[in-house]
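Hey,
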Amino acid sequence: MTKATLLCALIGSGALLMIPRAAAAADDGAQPGDEAMSCEQLAVEMKPYADSMRGSLGALNDTNMQLLALGQKQMARDAPRVNATTQAAGATCGFVGGPACMAATQADQANRNAIHAQEAAEAKPLADQQLAQANTVAAQGKQLQSNARLTRLMQLGHAKGCDRSSRAR
């Protein structure tokens, strides 16, 4: 093989390797027949994309619900302690005033701070889990946003009003 033939082969193969990249860069996700698709057809084609996030979103929702339940439990448990010091501070300020009021108000605030720190420590494992799950969902969403086909399907759905058809008017 001559140098010229080898050079042409290398250039040719390089050109062939670059064609798919160029085509992929220009890919807008459109396919023949897209414009004629109904909302139902668009939904069917988008379902696998939605399904790919279902597990992560479900886990995040479960953690959110656990955090909400924990917060409600903490509030029910801690409200009497907060109310007791607040009422004591109010009574002290109302009957005695002066330095005793200031001390009672500071004690009330210290109690609130201690309760808040305890609640935050109790919620930390769930809050850390929630953050990790939210980061996973965000990464998946970012990956889906870069999918030209999904973007095209969503644009078609919006243009056809599919995103409004399930809402009450």
